[in-house]
């Protein structure tokens, strides 16, 4: 108990120390003797906080307000390494300090280009991420894992030609910085990707010269390595993926073995390392999101119906979407506080963001919300950190 109290006291002292450093515009590790002795600055093996066991020190750092994380990251290598780790997210969860943020890729006001902006759990803060390194791309994949935002592959347009990429970039939501990760094994775009049990999967899409792909690979954040896994039974592109109970599901898009759009659902068992399939899928999906243990979709031909898939019993339920603004509005989804947000994909001053609460009493699931990106929403990722 005494150790725990001393840890909280030290965390309070650290808060004051970082506040002073930030106000004066100087990184904490350059303030002589203000937080930690300079001899620890570059030693990854040093104690996290001298005089405290590492588990208590980790808990202390997890209690520091989020706004100080970038300053903490330059104190020493040990702190930076801890803040970048998934253990940091676990300790913050244990301490009840996790915050939920909605990252939204938004069209610029001029309609040319795009930027990432962040909404807090109340949808009120509109901070903008620094531009991602490398050329601007389309057809890329987006995944959130361990408090990080990953942008996968895609293609850049040069002289009217598409140039597929294998680049992977990571945005650290705590340190507020971009990092280049290991390249994928296969350059691709318009593919499916998702996180399952802390691993990131990329499947199908188009490759070099526009050929359709059946190959798949998985990324391990702990080793920063991509590994090729068993391929799909058929090439598939324009599809999407989600994880459920240790399995990877691939749905929608097109397949070379079908005429038109594919209703097949490809399922990869991460335990058995093999694919199987079921036939009860959704086609031409324009928006999808996973909330709890259910998948929510809207199909291109039926924008006024919310299709809800329960993977536990392989069943679909169709829910009418209320009309706010134009009845022809198409949607993009966002998830915040366990609720589904329906953002407009077109300019409509009369449209108010719709909110679907799956846990509300029957008849009151639909509400309206003041949460709204600054521009048209292209895609979203929910991150807890």
From TrEMBL:
Every F-box domain range: 50-88
Transmembrane feature ranges: none
Key word Magnesium present: no
Entry keyword annotation includes Repressor: no
Domain of life (superkingdom): Eukaryota
The entry's keywords: Kelch repeat, Repeat
CDD domains: F-box_AtAFR-like
Name assigned to this protein: F-box domain-containing protein
Annotated source species: Cinchona calisaya
């Amino acid at each position: 108990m005494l150790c725990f109290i001393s840890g909280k006291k030290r965390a309070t002292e650290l808060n004051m120390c970082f506040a002073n450093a930030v106000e004066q515009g100087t990184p904490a590790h350059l303030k002589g003797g203000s937080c930690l002795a300079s001899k620890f600055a570059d030693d990854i093996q040093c104690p996290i906080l001298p005089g405290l066991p590492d588990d208590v020190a980790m808990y202390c750092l997890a209690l520091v307000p989020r706004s100080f994380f970038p300053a903490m990251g330059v104190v020493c290598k040990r702190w930076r390494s801890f803040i970048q780790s998934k253990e940091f997210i676990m300790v913050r969860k244990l301490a009840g300090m996790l915050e939920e943020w909605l990252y939204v890729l938004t069209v610029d006001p001029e309609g040319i280009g795009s930027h990432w902006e962040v909404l807090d759990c109340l949808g009120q803060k509109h901070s903008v991420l620094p531009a991602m390194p490398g050329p601007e791309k389309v057809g890329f994949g987006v995944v959130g894992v361990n408090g990080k935002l990953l942008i996968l592959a895609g293609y850049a347009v040069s002289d009217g030609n598409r140039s597929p990429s294998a680049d992977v970039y990571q945005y650290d939501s705590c340190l507020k910085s971009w990092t280049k990760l290991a390249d994928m094994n296969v350059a691709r775009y318009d593919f499916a990707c998702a996180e399952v049990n802390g691993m990131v999967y990329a499947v199908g899409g188009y490759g070099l010269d526009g050929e359709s792909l059946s190959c798949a690979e998985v990324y391990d954040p702990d080793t920063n390595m991509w590994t090729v896994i068993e391929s799909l039974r058929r090439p598939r592109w324009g599809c999407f993926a989600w994880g459920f109970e240790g399995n990877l599901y691939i749905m929608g898009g097109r397949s070379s073995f079908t005429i038109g759009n594919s209703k097949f659902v490809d399922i990869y068992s991460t335990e058995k390392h093999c694919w199987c399939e079921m036939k009860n899928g959704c086609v031409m999906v324009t928006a999808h999101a996973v909330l709890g243990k259910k998948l929510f979709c809207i199909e291109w031909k039926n924008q006024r119906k919310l299709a809800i898939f329960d993977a536990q019993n392989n069943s679909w339920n169709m829910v009418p979407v209320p009309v706010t603004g134009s009845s022809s509005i198409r949607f993009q989804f966002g998830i915040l506080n366990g609720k589904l947000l329906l953002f407009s994909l077109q300019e409509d001053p009369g449209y108010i963001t719709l909110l679907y609460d799956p846990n509300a009493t029957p008849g009151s699931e639909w509400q309206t919300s003041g949460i709204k990106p600054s521009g048209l929403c292209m895609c979203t990722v929910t991150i807890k950190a």
